[in-house]
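#help-structures
NK: newbie question, is this the right format to request a structure? protein is Diguanylate cyclase with GAF sensor
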Amino acid sequence: MQAPDLPPDEALRLATLRSLNILDTPTEERFDRLTRLAKRLFGVPIVLISLVDAHRQWFKSCVGVNATETPREVSFCGHAILADEIFLIPDATQDPRFADNPLVTGEPHIRFYAGCPLSVGVGGRLGTLCLIDTEPRQMSADDLALLRDLARMAEQELAAVQMATLDELTGLSNRRGFMALAQHALQWCERHRQPATLLYMDLDEFKPINDRFGHAEGDLALRAFAQCLGEAFRGSDVIARQGGDEFLVLLTESSPEQASAALERLRSLLQAYKLSSARGYALDFSVGAVPYDRERHATLEAWLAAADQAMYEAKRARKLAGPR
Ligand SMILES: Nc1nc2c(ncn2[C@@H]2O[C@H](COP(=O)(O)OP(=O)(O)OP(=O)(O)O)[C@@H](O)[C@H]2O)c(=O)[nH]1
């Protein structure tokens, strides 16, 4: 048996998959409708929407099997996500990569497999819509086109899941997306005994920008701030717009000193933006920076509350100090 290789973009692929916060969620009619439809149209006993996680494939939707996941190393879908085209195995018993695969020699006795990769944006191939039969079979050009069409519909549903985690104005994660990504990032830091710092930021004097220059200018300012965040922090940091003029950054593998250095970078970028854009206002912010402490922060929510409180105190101190 040949276990599937890892795709070159595995890290981005897994980050995208996890940011959807879809793994281990309950069944949903919008996905089940597609697998049922494919089962009827192709007359196969098994159809799956399979998402390929680090060590397993997990089924967002499945008809014809009771399992909800299998190890990645025995999965056909692990192979199917390595290329853009449909991965077709007319008879697994005749294919040296699969003839002794336990899913072929045992339940569910796979003979035929056709998996169309599913992508969302540029995040890589997250999984497949796949057809499985216990008899060998072939696919016509029309069959292949139909499977592709159904896969595009599954991708649209996945994209809708992704949209629910994004902030439309800035393109950053929204709070929901942040909670999902931050949970994974924090677990990673815990496992690898790495420090992490949470930044809770609120723009200063943002309302006057709206009031003086209009809401559209306020939107532009929020987008400019988001852009500076993206440049100041690492690609692996979790950056989100919490709502209104509040932003969150979770810095992983970062000491408090490294977090301070990143904040200094951000202030320099904002200063440069002010000078180059000449829009008649500055973008400044108050921040609460709280290093992760497993004793004090039992949950992500508790950590966020501590950073919110620290931000509030920083803002109050700034207001007491008067205009700068
Ligand atoms: N343009 C724009 N404005 C927004 C958006 N969301 C929230 N706001 C405005 O952001 C402002 C946030 O209020 P505050 O945080 O109290 O304003 P502030 O002037 O920064 O106050 P301080 O934080 O005390 O300095 C409100 O006026 C909201 O109407 C948005 O998506 N676009």
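mod (FA): yep, format's fine, and the tokens are attached above. The chain is about 45% helix and 20% strand.
NK: thank you!
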